[in-house]
Amino acid sequence: MSATTEKLDDLRLEIDEIDAQLHELLIRRTEVSQQIGKLKERSRPHIRPGREAAIMRNLVARHRGSLPKAVLLRLWREIIADSAQQQGPFSLSVYAGEEAPELRDLARETFGVLTPLSEQGSNVRVLNEVANGKATLGVLPPIQSDSRNPWWRHLARDGADVPRIVSRLPFAPWPRDRGGDSEALVVALGPPEPSGDDRSFLVAEVQDRMSRAAFKDLLAKAGLVARETATWTDGEDAPYCYCLAEVDGYLEGPEAPPLSDLIEAAGERVSRVWVIGRYPVPLSDDEMASTDRGTRGRR
Ligand SMILES: O=C(O)C(=O)C[C@]1(C(=O)O)C=C[C@@H](O)C=C1
Fold first, then answer.
1. pLDDT digits (tens, 9 = 90+) for 4-49
2. What band does 178 get if pLDDT is binned at 50, 70 and 90?
3. What is the pLDDT of residues 213-252, one digit of tens each?
4. 137-140 and 92-95 beta bridge pairing
5. CA of 174 to the centre of ligand 1 (A)
6. Residues 22, 29: Cα–Cα separation, whole Å
7. 247, β-bridge pairs
8. Which atom of ligand 1 is nearest to the CA of 80?
9. 30 CA distance to ligand 1 centroid (A)?
10. How many CB atoms lie within 10 A of CB 240?
11. Would you call 109 helix, strand, or coil by DSSP?
């Protein structure tokens, strides 16, 4: 046996041992997830987007070597998707209409190959599937400032059956030369949970009309800087318009600052404000950059 063959055999043995350990750990992780599922039985839905984001951030922060972070996170996405499946019903309702026909791929990449997925031709159908418990998560196109019939307007109300925005996709962007450029927002029922680094969406019900610029000024009075804004009115004669803003941080609710400040600053003009969702800030291109470019691709 040549020295090279001997060395190859040794290294393959080492890979077999590593695979056995990884496999054993996956079996154990699944068992622990089932135990968590039993403890959470009464707190449906069992999905925790904030916790998942924290796990992904920790993985990226700890990573070293030449395995791309995109690959590392993809593996964990599959593991966590199955973990959710182990704990109870877990399914997706994905918008597949003209506005964003390609969300299915993004949903599959994020929520695993085996997760049941249905496609819907309208945003309202996706919201209904989540509201009536047929789907755990709804995957919808990003907010468009000029939409005549935006899906987010259906979230501007109170109630335990009103879905809320819980994630923004992709959480981990693909390397620029490899990935598609589709984006999505994910909605779910259930109590919100901060991830440690979040953004929020709020909607204000404003008497009469308000331009996006005027709404930004109003937000500034409450110390809020809008990343994005959108407005919607239900026809010419409607008494209200609805103004949406995406802001940094985790907003608690209209009773607490800064939203209570916003309502005060607006005087009579703002009758109601809803926090229609919060989501963990996705990883940046810099955070996803390779930790070890030197050895990758070398022959
Ligand atoms: O931490 C939990 O609550 C879990 O259920 C575990 C777990 C995981 O596998 O890491 C699974 C699903 C949740 O969405 C978040 C995390």
1. 999 999 999 999 999 999 999 999 999 999 999 999 877 667 899 9
2. low
3. 999 999 999 999 999 999 999 888 899 999 999 999 999 9
4. parallel
5. 23
6. 10
7. 200, 226
8. 9
9. 10
10. 19
11. helix
Q: 63 near 171, Cβ under 8 Å? A: no
Distances (CA, A) of 213 to 85, 130, 166, 205: 44, 33, 27, 16
Quote ipTM for the complex. 0.99
List C-alpha distances in Å: 130 to 22, 50, 83, 182, 211: 35, 19, 20, 22, 32
- What distance in Å separates the CA atoms of residue 139 and residue 109, rounded to the nearest whole number? 12
- SS3 state at 27: helix
Q: Does the pLDDT at position 296 exceed 90?
A: no
Class of domain 198-280: alpha beta
The pLDDT of residue 297:
42
* Ligand 1 atom with minimal separation from the 36 CA: 5
Contact 142, 151 (CB under 8 A): no
Q: Is the pLDDT of residue 176 over 70?
A: no
Q: Which atom of ligand 1 is nearest to the CA of 83?
A: 9
Instruction: Output the average pLDDT for the chain.
Output: 91
Residues with CB under 6 A from ligand 1: 33, 36, 46-48, 51-52, 55, 80, 83-84, 87
Q: Whose alpha carbon is nearest atom 8 of ligand 1?
A: 80
Instruction: Please give the distance, rounded to the nearest whole angstrom, from the Cα atom of residue 49 to the centre of ligand 1.
Output: 8
